[in-house]
Amino acid sequence: MSFLFGLMFCLGISSLFSQNAKLLGTWESKDKDEPVQMILDERGFITFRASGQLMGGVGYNIDGERLRMTYRTHQEDSKLKITITIRDLIKKRILKRDTGTIVFTDPNNIQICFKKTIQESTNTFSNDCRYFLKIM
User: Fold this and answer.
1) Long-range contacts of residues 20-27, Cβ cutoff 8 Å, at least 24 apart
2) Which of 9, 50, 70, 102 has the fewest CB atoms within 10 Å, i.e. the most exposed one?
3) For residues 12 and 4, is the Cβ–Cβ distance under 8 A?
C-alpha cells in the first residue's frame, strides 16, 4: 500500500513540474523592429531577452523589487494554453498572471496570443499575437 501511495505522490509531483516538451528551448520573435528571445526551461521558468537585457526566470530585479517569472502549460478545449505568472519574492505575492493560447504552425514555429483590453468600460478586447521561431 505504501508503494502505491509513493508512486501516486511521485506522479503527482512530476505532473506539477512537467512542461510541454515541444516548447522547451529558446524562441525568437519574428518582430523585425525589435526581436525578443523567449527561453522556456524544464523547471517552469520563462525568461525574455531584449536588447541584450534579461527579464524573468528564477530571480530578477525591476525598480528594486525581486521578482520571479514562471510558466505552466495545459490543454483546454483541445487548445494548448500557457499561463505566465510574475511573483514578488519579498512580499510573497502574485503581481500578474496571464493565460494565452499557443498554436504550432509547424514544429519550429509558434503563435502565442493573449487577450488585450482595448476599452475597459465596454469590456472590449483584442488578441495580441506574436510569432516565434525556435532557435535552440
Assistant:
1) 20/73, 20/80, 22/104, 22/107, 23/73, 23/82, 23/102, 23/110, 25/134, 25/135, 25/136, 26/134, 26/135, 26/136, 27/110, 27/132, 27/133, 27/134, 27/135
2) 9
3) no
Closest alpha carbon to 28 in 106, 116, 108: 108
In sequence order, the β-bridge partners of residue 55 are 48
C-alpha grid cell, residue 65:
523589487
2-134 — its CATH code? 2.40.128
72 within 8 A of 55, measured Cβ to Cβ: no
**Could you read off the pLDDT of 65-77 as tens digits, one per residue?**
999 999 999 998 8
- C-alpha dist (Å) from residue 36 to 10, 66, 122: 36, 22, 32
- All structural domains of the chain with their residue ranges: 2-134
